[in-house]
């Protein structure tokens, strides 16, 4: 399953992502990863979750991020949840069509691996709402 936390900058997406990641650590016996730019979340994320700085691996763009997330799943058979903060910065785009394509590809990866993905996306929900009906769940307050 792919879930999105959407909204403009400053609407609390990262705080909600942190809370959901920490809840996932408590609820699962599997592997929980948090992918972010930098290590600013290191004091907020449970120590049982793996915080991964994408800049250490030079991840930029749709293909590289999808491959990186697939590699996390391939390297850890018990991955249950992967959280991605600042998704648009990693994708290096604000184009809704690129975002929709990435989400569809990520959903396919989720089905293959049984991993759940939650992405924080700094975009208005209406810009990508048409992909939500058949592929993803957009989390709302």
CATH class: Alpha Beta
Shape: globular
The CATH superfamily title? P-loop containing nucleotide triphosphate hydrolases
Strand content: 15-25%
Which stretches are low in confidence, meaning pLDDT under 50 for 5 or more residues running? Answer: none
CATH architecture: 3-Layer(aba) Sandwich
* Radius of gyration based on Cα positions: 14 Å
Beta strand count = 6
SSE order in H/E notation? EHEEHEHHEHE
**Strand arrangement, largest sheet?**
3-2-4-5-1-6
How many strands, what sense, and barrel or not for the largest sheet? Answer: 6 strands, parallel
| Count of separate structural domains | 1
Ends: how far apart? 19 Å
Descriptive report:
The protein starts with a strand and ends with a strand. It has a six-stranded parallel β-sheet with strand order 3-2-4-5-1-6, with helices on both faces. The longest helix has 18 residues. About 30% of the residues are buried. The mean pLDDT is about 90. The protein has one domain: Rossmann fold (3-Layer(aba) Sandwich), CATH 3.40.50.300. Helices cover about 45% and strands about 20% of the residues. The protein is an alpha/beta fold. It is globular and about 35 Å long. The chain is built from five helices and six strands.
